[in-house]
Write a structure and sequence with these properties.
Strand order of the largest sheet: 1-2-3-5-7-10
Bound molecules: (2E)-Hexenoyl-CoA
Largest sheet: 6 strands, mixed
Shape: globular
Order of helices and strands: HEEHEEHHHEEHEEHHEHEHHHH
EC number: 4.2.1.17
Distance between the termini: 39 Å
Family: Belongs to the enoyl-CoA hydratase/isomerase family.
InterPro entries: ClpP/crotonase-like_dom_sf, Enoyl-CoA_hyd/isom_CS, Enoyl-CoA_hydra/iso, Enoyl-CoA_hydra_C
CATH superfamily of the largest domain: 2-enoyl-CoA Hydratase, Chain A, domain 1
Helix content: 40-55%
Structural class: alpha/beta
Enzyme class: lyase
Organism: Nicrophorus vespilloides (Boreal carrion beetle)
CATH architecture of the largest domain: Alpha-Beta Complex
């Protein structure tokens, strides 16, 4: 087939919901639409501007094996580059968001192997994403599953959700943020209780302690998370990423430094067209038309 025809075919595929549109211009990297073993990937919402990642390893309750987390990191990277994606939702099944890191895969690891391979370092890709990421948690979110949810920006839970850090029961400790992010969400006493006992907390308790922002019936959860992604997607992507960075800075720094960062970032919005458009639209009593500039 002539090169131009292949390029055109690829371009058409990219237009019709294929996830790596950058490949449309690049025949040499492209063999087929990417296929995933452990996740399902779609673009959803009325404008197809929400990237939906469904963890899909049902026989192991979505245990987060290396292959699954590599696929999640890759698609986060792709969604980040894709200008049509405004927000990302990560979900699992009704039984399990994820029952933790894969215990069978880890069982025979040694200290030396963990150090030399920098075990789990690629998990950070989710926390490092510059676009908003929403976790929609039904069922178990245990160990690495709870940590994955906490790497997201907002956690919505189904009524049956159960959160926990049961690593202590396995003779280890949280290794992907559980001992660091959980106290920032729920405070020291509750975090200690969860981490030191391995006890699970249900959706209502998780909402009460500030881990979860809203609870929905199990069957409604994912569509409500997608709606949230669409709502955020009505705002300027540029300003959304600045707002996200500013909130995240609150977890990384002192109050004085954080306030300084916020002020400078706020000043920075005055260098954007979208800030001018937002305020002008308000004054002219019309909806804003943001252009991501
Ligand atoms: C990231 C950094 C550090 C993090 C560390 C961790 O996350 S440590 C982990 C922290 N998490 C935990 O300690 C939770 C471990 N999981 C559990 O305690 C229970 O599975 C349950 C209470 C979630 C559900 O009970 P239930 O009676 O409804 O279901 P069931 O038990 O029959 O499971 C069905 C199948 O899934 C399999 N599988 C499940 N989880 C894992 C896993 N993490 N791994 C591998 N496989 C797992 C299970 O073996 C079984 O497969 P099999 O043997 O039939 O081929």
């Amino acid at each position: 087939m002539a090169g131009r025809t292949i390029a055109k075919l690829l371009f058409n595929q990219a237009q019709s919901n294929v996830i790596r549109p950058q490949f449309a211009n690049s025949v040499k990297f492209y063999s087929a639409a990417p296929s995933y073993e452990f996740i399902k990937v779609e673009k959803v919402g009325e404008k197809k501007n929400v990237g939906l990642i469904t963890l899909n390893r049902p026989k192991a309750l979505n245990a987060l094996c290396n292959g699954l987390m590599t696929e999640v990191s890759n698609i986060i990277e792709d969604f980040e580059k894709d200008n049509s994606v405004a927000a990302i939702v990560i979900t699992g099944s009704e039984k399990a968001f994820a029952a933790g890191a894969d215990i069978k895969e880890m069982q025979n690891n040694t200290y030396s192997k963990c150090i030399s391979g920098n075990f789990l370092s690629h998990w950070n890709r989710v926390a490092d994403c510059t676009k908003p990421v929403i976790a929609a948690v039904n069922g178990y979110a245990l160990g690495g599953g709870c940590e994955l949810a906490m790497m997201c920006d907002i956690i919505y839970a189904g009524e049956t959700a159960k959160f926990g850090q049961p690593e202590i029961l396995l003779g280890t400790i949280p290794g992907a943020g559980g001992s660091q992010r959980l106290p920032r969400y729920v405070g020291k006493s509750k975090a200690m209780e969860i981490v030191l006992t391995g006890d699970q907390v249900n959706a209502v308790e998780a909402e009460k302690m500030g881990l979860v922002s809203k609870i929905f019936p199990v069957g409604e959860l994912v569509s409500r998370a997608i709606k949230l992604g669409e709502k955020i997607g009505k705002n300027s992507p540029l300003i959304v990423s600045m707002a996200k960075e500013s909130v995240n800075t609150a977890y990384e720094t002192t109050l004085a430094e954080g306030l300084h960062f916020e002020k400078r970032t706020f000043h920075g919005t005055f260098a954007t067209k979208d800030r001018m458009e937002g305020m002008t639209a308000f004054v002219e009593k019309r909806p804003a038309n943001f252009t991501n500039e």
